[in-house]
Amino acid sequence: MLQEERFIEIVKLVENRKSVTVQELMEIFNASESTIRRDLNALHQMGKLIKVHGGAVADSGYLSLDMDVAEKSNINKEEKIAIAKYSASLIKNEDFVFMDAGTTTEFMIDFITAKQAVFVTNAISHGRKLARNGFTVFVTGGELKGITEAVVGEDTVRTLKRYNFTKGFFGTNGIHLERGYTTPDIREALVKSQAMKRCRECYVLADESKFNQVSPVTFGGFEDAIIITRNLKNNEYKKYKNVKEVN
């Protein structure tokens, strides 16, 4: 199928379904992930659809799209591990740390050497791994969201209001200069937003694919955190002082 024909069919699918994922399009068109992502980038620039992390939605509005945590963990894994390793080096023994749910934040745990640091997390898997590695860790209460394995809800937000963190490490689905840090789920956004307010220093861990992406719900402004990334190709973001590229 020619690219122009594929463009037409993708737009039809998005208009009919209101949302599609990259995985669905790969199967429908028997195309590689890189091909589909290039198509969505081009159609987004043409104004035919709105690209969001993990897929695309119709131009009429945003819909919740999120990827399973197992699927996420293998995307840009090399970049995520490099980002995680540097981020872990920022944690010192005296720190009281919030660790957000997410694949990159989970990769951090194997690289943390500050054994006297204390952690709070809203991810069951993170809490289990931190405890096994000998850290003091508290897991927030609330509803366990299956697809991202994050604990969310009013109980989680209430718990976070009790804490004052020295540092917080966050995942995000999108980074945008005007829309800030975004995620598909309002419940996760509320937890991330409250946690950021309770942190003295905030770090958002993001590979290059997250830049210039927008998900439905904003949980922080662009300048509210230091962004730790790697191999950033988008020159528009390189000039900002809160963007830190790691080797």
Provide a compact summary of the structure.
By secondary structure, the chain is α/β, with parallel strands linked by helices.
Radius of gyration: 18 Å
Low-confidence runs of at least 5 consecutive residues: 60-64
CATH topology assignment of the largest domain: Rossmann fold
What is the β-strand count? 15
Report strand %.
15-25%
Which structural class fits the helix and strand makeup? alpha/beta
- The second-level CATH architecture of the largest domain is 3-Layer(aba) Sandwich
So what's the overall shape?
A: globular
Overall tally of structural domains? 2
The ordered H/E elements are HEHHEEHHEHEHEEEHEEEHEEEHE
Helix content: 25-40%
What distance separates the N and C termini?
39 Å
Average of per-residue pLDDT values:
90
CATH class of the largest domain: Alpha Beta
Strand order of the biggest β-sheet: 6-5-4-9-12-14-15
Give a short account of the largest sheet: 7 strands, parallel
Continuous helix count = 10
Would you give an account of this structure?
The protein has 247 residues and is of the alpha/beta class. It folds into 2 domains: 3-63, Winged helix-like DNA-binding domain superfamily/Winged helix DNA-binding domain (Arc Repressor Mutant, subunit A, Orthogonal Bundle), CATH 1.10.10; 70-245, Rossmann fold. 37% of the residues lie in helices and 23% in strands. The protein has helices at 3-17, 22-29, 33-45, 69-73, 77-89, 103-108, 124-132, 154-160, 186-197, 235-238; strands at 19-21, 50-52, 55-57, 96-99, 118-121, 136-139, 143-145, 150-152, 165-170, 174-176, 180-183, 199-205, 217-220, 226-229, 243-245. Strands 6-5-4-9-12-14-15 form a 7-stranded parallel sheet, sandwiched between helices. The chain has a 3-stranded antiparallel sheet with strand order 1-3-2. Helix 6 links the parallel strand 4 (96-99) and strand 5 (118-121). Helix 2 (22-29) packs across helix 3 and helix 8 (154-160) runs parallel beside helix 9 (186-197). The longest helix is centred in the first third of the chain and has 15 residues, at 3-17. The protein is globular and about 60 Å long.
